[in-house]
Structures are given as C-alpha cells and as structure tokens.
Known about the structure:
about 70% helix; elongated
Amino acid sequence: MTVQELGRSVRFRRQQMGVSQESFAAKAGISLRKLSDIECGNGNPTFDTMDSIDAAFGIQIEELICADVEVDLLPRNDLSRLQPMLDRLPEAQQELFLSAAEGVLIQWTERSRAGHGAAL
Length: 120
C-alpha cells in the first residue's frame, strides 16, 4: 500500500463516520495538519501516528491497510481519454475490452487483498 492509498483509506473511513477532520484529529490525538497531510498522501506517518488513528477508528492497523475501499484506479482525466477510443470500436469489441478490463481489475483487487501488492 502506498502512502497515497493509505491516505485515501483514512479519508474514506473518516467520511463514512461522518466526522470532520478537526473532530477526528482531536479524537486521534494528532494535529489537524498531520491528519490533512496523511489524507492527502503527503509525508510518511509514523507507527505511533497510525496506531493513534487506528485506535480512533476502533480497528487494528491491518483493517486499515487491507481495507476494501473503493478508490479511483485512474485519475478522471485518464479515464476520459479512454471514452473516445472505446466509442470508435464496434460494440462487440467494446464489450470484449470492458470484460478484459474488469477481469484485470478483479485480479488486481484479489492479489492486493492477498498481500501480493498491485503487480499482476
């Protein structure tokens, strides 16, 4: 898991709780700036900081690191580049491409959950 993925996971869980950054930072006993940096994927949080965040969520670190969090795999601008290419393909080839892409994403997700990283 990259620092950016960790940040997205923290932000996703915090938002699911319906808690502001300020409230969550206070609950975790860390500064608002530190939480913001983590959620933005900046810096490299220490184990102590991550332990405080996990405790504030009421979870073990493994649950945060191996979280089943839906995140954008590609930035929106990259996804928008695919649409014109797909539109030029016949419908059968579009379906084939989408099936193949779905299969790759499923494999990536399963391997990530199994602790093999993002490599296929």
